[in-house]
Amino acid sequence: MNTEVTPEQINFYRENGFVVIDNFLTPEELEVWRKAVDEAVAQREDFLMATREARADKVFYEQVFIQRINLWNDHAKMKELMFDARLGKMMADLAGVDGIRIWHDQALIKPAWGNPTGWHLDNPFWSFTSRDSLSVWVALDDVTLENGCLYFLPGTHKLGGWDVTKIGENVGDLFKIYPEWINMKAIPAPMKAGSCSIHNGFTAHGANSNMTPGPRRAMTCAYMPDGSTFSGRKNILPQEYFEKLKLGDLLDDDNQNPLIYHRTKEYVTA
Ligand SMILES: O=C(O)CCC(=O)C(=O)O
Ligand SMILES: [Fe+2]
Q1: Partners of 109 in beta bridges
Q2: Does any ligand 1 atom lie closer than 6 A to the CB of residue 137?
Q3: What's the 244 CA to ligand 2 centre distance in angstroms?
Q4: Which of 124, 135, 179, 185 matches a 20 to 30 Å C-alpha distance to 81?
Q5: Which residues face 136 on adjacent strands?
Q6: Are residues 157 and 217 in contact, defined by beta-carbon separation less than 8 angstroms?
Q7: Which of 18, 125, 137, 191 most suits a substitution to test ligand 1, by most atoms within 8 Å of the C-beta?
Q8: Which residue, 192, 169, 166, is CA-closest to 177?
């Protein structure tokens, strides 16, 4: 796993709000990730979370992507892959923070002939306040302009606010909130299987439809800088935990948000 980021990559990320890392996984590691993700997704059946409460929305959302959250909760190999401290360090280096917690992992599989992913920002959905949140998006298949590669609006991580735009049926609803972005040029991020992109939680991004007969598989993980505090949103927090939290509380529960890397503290390993 190529988790050493260069000063150029860090600068690019900080300036643009995203960066593509080619050949992130070796061909052997890619096979391990594919097998683990395929297994963990199959075992989850059509449940969004390991708690098996909410079934996925087959009518609309599953045609954008098959989304299965926190595979680390119910698949040992996924836990080992997601808890890799090298990944945490890479995120800490890019974000310029000391410690990194998992907010949630998620498989995002755009099915054959699947719908586009509407433009959105991520962090407004999540339950914490930070300008330094970020996600890694690992391509498990070659990702092209034809099958739904990601697109980014460069620099929007410095501008985006807290309004939530649902990933709904209108690809461009985000531009109703940010009309000043309407003439921006979106940058596509096609990549080979095993490469990855990292984007900030406030970078506007979306994906085109999948115009091919094969799935576009991606494994992603969203990260919260250690020290982040509660924003008031429930998102994926369990009800009992959510009810105990007050605005501004530190989110430091290792069972919910494992600390996978810290420059000085002890951290969790799988
Ligand atoms: O995979 C996609 O189509 C969207 C990915 C995304 O929104 C994300 O990783 O934050
Ligand atoms: Fe997103």
Answers
A1: 66, 217
A2: yes
A3: 27
A4: 124
A5: 198, 221
A6: no
A7: 137
A8: 166
Q: What CATH number should be reported for the domain holding residue 81?
A: 2.60.120.620
Which residue has 């993700």 as its token pair?
A: 37
Kindly report the CA angle at 260 between 259 and 266, in degrees rounded to 5? 70
The answer to the question of residue 268 being in a domain is no
Q: Assess contact for 144 and 190: CB atoms under 8 A.
A: yes
In a domain, 270, yes or no: no
Please report, in angstroms and rounded to a whole number, the separation of the first and last CA atoms in the chain.
17
Token pair 């330094």 is at which residue? 132
Ligand nearest to the CA of 221: 1
Where in the sequence is the domain holding 240, given as residue range(s)?
A: 7-262
Residues of the chain scoring pLDDT < 50: none
Summarize pLDDT for 73-91 with one digit per residue, the tens.
Answer: 999 999 999 999 999 999 9
pLDDT one-digit tens code per residue, 9-57: 999 999 999 999 999 999 999 999 999 999 999 999 999 999 998 888 8
Q: Is 138 in the pocket of ligand 1 (CB under 6 A)?
A: no
Whether residue 103 contacts residue 133, with contact meaning beta carbons closer than 8 Å, is answered with yes
Count of domains forming the chain: 1
**Amino acid 56: pLDDT:** 87
Whether 137 maps to a domain, the answer reads yes
CB proximity list for 247: less than 8 A, separation 6 or greater: 230, 231, 232
Residues 137, 142: Cα–Cα separation, whole Å: 13
Structure tokens at 251: 């989110």
